[in-house]
RNA sequence: UGGGGUAUAGCCAAGUUGGUAAGGCAGCGGGUUUUGAUCCCGCGAUUCGUUGGUUCGAGUCCAGCUACCCCAGCCA
């Protein structure tokens, strides 16, 4: 798809333009810094597109850095999934992926530097004591009794922490800043804590791990990141970011800028909540097609280009937002409308028997793969005496607004003949099972010679060659626009977010490649599910077609 | 008077030396159409959270007010 030619401007670009013009920087370097404690989601895609997009547009580079300072929550599977997702989105990071843990030794050295400057101390207060001494939002905190431990002793104490001489929670390293600061994060923040945990990158090498605020800014400096972009909740932390950089022998001075995180209607985008959905089996896994994860969107049938386009359209600002799902759907429809070959599939089949068509005859028809793009070629579809049509496409009686098959009336079978409904059969519940029709043999590829107008066109699948398929129809995962705002977001889960249907697809779809999109004419965009253990074809509906009829009809 | 942020159409979002409100999504009309799809054409803010002020002129400058978001993890 043709992505928007020139990127819309935003405040980050303006800052970069200024920094380039003023000569502050000759080129830019950004980074995408996920913690490997879960799968990436569409919100991360916003950050990825921003960081990698900026690097591309300004001919700079972008690093992929795993912010792996909390081994208890992280693992290598997430690292691998994240790398795959970033690549799948179409981005390439500069050199090898980095890890904050690559810098543990240097970070340790900077911590020692702060200690030696009298700007950090080892605190043996309990967590509860620290909380009490921190004060509140409106009241200043009070100094720790360990705050004035002599420098030399702090130096030894910290070395002892590293050597494993203290238990978890027994002590921690804190920056000596200002317990009365209006910024809570400046009230002597913890820099290092003790964790006897195995780390996916450094193994058992360390028993002390640096905190985010100490690690991130230094990692940025070590990588010579020029513009460090993060989300709004880190605005206060910027004071600490700058404090650390100013007080150590930093090799560079990176700057942090914050933008608002993405909120999408009818889903949740917080790692904690997504983990809960997976752990409590509200969904089948991280790549469940209903999940807003990159892996889920991929399995659902979203393309990398459509997600990039979405990120372009939503923009980058500091305003809180809640983007409509329709925005995302418009992006994938725009992509698939021009790129997806058409095919026919019936989701809720009823039989049509064409009584004046020879019993043992069948013929091969040619159908274009795309109505507006001849270059996509044609395919062959078979036609015979019995075909399946959509149950919704037949009514015993209806007004002229209903442009489908009605008893005694004609309708065009897409890419085929005009048929007329003569009579029908239904089961004991009143559901129509079979419609007996006649066909006009002179209407293949042309209108009736006598000038009869046949307005309706419906899709169908040849009964003799059609293939049964499981079709997964997805709906929003939650019943409310902003589940994150609910008291209990789990209670707002939509119990009908997945509807499994047994349909019939045209024979050409038998070998549909996993993940490759098709438009099933008149019903939507679908792609084959990767589930290889399944015994039959499985198609996932990515998104339906825009449906103005369904709207008026339903109303 | 804790501090940090944000307020432009239903949603997203341009608007940067003050000069008379881009664009996209959604919606609504109309046209084309063997997908009620696509495509094409047309329609939306006398108004920029609010109240005042400065000015010939303010979304853009100033002051006050209001609403919403974030911060009291040895999480990120």
From TrEMBL:
Keywords: Aminoacyl-tRNA synthetase, ATP-binding, Cytoplasm, Ligase, Nucleotide-binding, Protein biosynthesis. L-glutamine binds at residues 67, 212. A motif ('HIGH' region) lies at residues 34-44. NCBIfam families: glnS (TIGR00440), PRK14703.1 (NF011291). A motif ('KMSKS' region) lies at residues 268-272. Residues 28-337 form the Glutamyl/glutaminyl-tRNA synthetase class Ib catalytic domain. The keyword Aminoacyl-tRNA synthetase applies. This is Glutamine--tRNA ligase. GO terms for molecular function: glutamine-tRNA ligase activity. Residues 340-440 form the Glutamyl/glutaminyl-tRNA synthetase class Ib anti-codon binding domain. It comes from Alteromonas arenosi. It comes from the Bacteria. The lineage of its organism: Bacteria, Pseudomonadati, Pseudomonadota, Gammaproteobacteria, Alteromonadales. Its EC number is 6.1.1.18. Monomer. Residues 457-529 form the tRNA synthetases class I (E and Q) anti-codon binding domain. ATP binds at residues 35-37, 41-47, 231, 261-262, 269-271.
